[in-house]
Structure formats: C-alpha cells, structure tokens
Amino acid sequence: MALDLPAAQVAATVVLNLSMAALTGASLADRWLHASSSHWAMRNRVSLRRVGLVSVTTALLTYMAALWLEAASMAEVALSQAAPAIDAVLTATHYGFSWKIGLVALAVVTVVTTLRWSPQRGPVADLVRLAAIGAFMYTRSMVSHAGAGGDISWAMAADWIHLVLISVWVGDVLVAGFVTLRHLPGATGQDGPERAQYTQALSNSATIALAGIAITGLISAWRGLGSLENITGNPYATVLLLKLALVAIAAALGGLNRFVVMPRLLAGLRAPGAPSSKQEQRFVFILQVESLVLAGALVFAAVLSSTSPPGAG
Questions:
Q1: Residue-wise pLDDT tens digits, 15-46
Q2: Hey, where are the domains in the chain?
Q3: How is the chain classified by DSSP, letter by letter?
C-alpha cells in the first residue's frame, strides 16, 4: 500500500508544530521559574528540561522526515526512492534554502537545551533559545502561503508573528496542564506564592498571545480568502472555519479559567492556611481540555497550510 504523501506531510507538520509549541512553553515556564527556590519550582525545572529535550529531539526527527517527504513530493516518486532528490531540493529550491536555515536554528536550540547552564548564564541561554525558536518559526513562514510574495513582506511578518503566538499559547497551556501544575499538593510554605506567581504569568502570557493571534489571524484570513465572497463554498474556507471554531472554544475555556476559576485559585495559593485543591483541579482540568482543543486546531492549521487559498490568484 503506497504512502499518502499529502497526508504524511500534514501529519509531520502537526507533530512539528506541537513539538515546537511544547518547546516554547517549556522555555517560557523555565524562565518564569528561574528565580524560584521552592521544592515545587526546582522539581518542575528538572521536568521542563526533560520536556525541552524530548520536544527538540522530536522536532529534529520530524524536520528530517519532512525534508524526505518534500523530496518525494517534488520528484513525484515513492518515499523509498526519494533519497537522490534530497540534494536537489536542498541546493536548488526555496524550500531547501529555508530548510537549511531552520536546521541551523534547531541546532542552536538543541545545544542550548542540552547543556546545563549556571544561574548567571541562564538568562542569556534562555534568550538565545527563544531567539532561535523565533528564527525557526520564520523559516516555516518562508514556505507558507505568506511566503509567496517574498521572504520579507508584511504578509510574512504577520504570518510569523501568528506562528510564534500560537506556539506561545499552545505551549503555555500544554506545559501547565500536563507538567508544571499537574498533581499539585495543597499550598504550603513557599510553594503557594510561587505557584500563584507562575499561574499569573501563565495567564498573562496566554492572554497577550490570544490578542495577537486574533489580529494576525484576521490579516492572514483576509489575505487567504481575498474577499467576503470566498468565506464559504471552497475547501480553504471550510478548513479555516473549522479551525476558527476550535480556537473560539479554546479561547472560551481560557476565559473561564482566567475570570472564574483563577481569582479563587490565586487567593487560596497566596493564603496557605486556605487550601484550594478543588480550584487547582478545576483549573488544571480546563487547561488540559483547552490543550486538546488547541491540538485539534493545529491539525486544521496544518491542513490549511497545504490547501490552496481562493485569494491566491
């Protein structure tokens, strides 16, 4: 049975985007916990380093696989026969040019994530890692619909910012829901205030990211659709609307956490004498559901990236 190359490319894009989101979320969480000294914070910094290593390794392997899939697609051959075409893709195509830049960026992220840094050099390492992640995201925009007008344009800038902010939002809730805030004990001693500070930073980051996503998403959607007449009746619009529906659900879940659950949670965390385990469990559960919804949105985003927009012409 022959491999469905378009489906495989979409799957690779989903895995790559999820890996980069987890890496971004782990990097931000580690930065927020950098000055914390509680047992909870120190334990999570170890976990976050593991998440970073797994994420960047997965991203590298998927990135290599994506090149192989692209070579097979361009040469119109079976995957097993694509090896000879890889050199041509790397040396004679725009995809290959952007892929090589992305590989360098991923290599930098890998080195920074793998090495153990002293507390004094930690901020510099974090900055380098986040900058390299941003550079990698730019190479993804270079091979997107936005890159059709050149590697430097307003469309490219909007698409790049959109990708970065999506990684921030997805990474924030994914890491918090399944790593840092999972299985929390009752707030005691120094843990409570530091967890409250982390939760506030998480919420602020996700809120800012969502606001930026809304703006850049409108720009990207308008560029792709071309006119209001194209909002229905074509595959691109259908996938876009499905993606937007999931994003809206995720945003509603985030709003529920921020405006309903979080105020009581923070009050409990800042007052160790008043345990807030129920609020913590509710907060984490909503984060986990939000993560799954966003993962679904990433699937539709990957399909969207391989679907020709009606406004392309």
A1: 999 999 999 999 999 999 988 888 888 889 99
A2: 5-312
A3: ----HHHHHHHHHHHHHHHHHHHHHHHHHHHHTTT--SHHHHHHHHHHHHHHHHHHHHHHHHHHHHHHHHHHHHHT--GGG-HHHHHHHHHHSHHHHHHHHHHHHHHHHHHHHHS---TTTHHHHHHHHHHHHHHHHHHHHHTSGGGGG-SSSHHHHHHHHHHHHHHHHHHHHHHIIIIITTT-----TTHHHHHHHHHHHHHHHHHHHHHHHHHHHHHHHHHHH-SGGGGSSSHHHHHHHHHHHHHHHHHHHHHHIIIIIHHHHHHHHH-TTS--HHHHHHHHHHHHHHHHHHHHHHHHHHHHHTS--GGG-
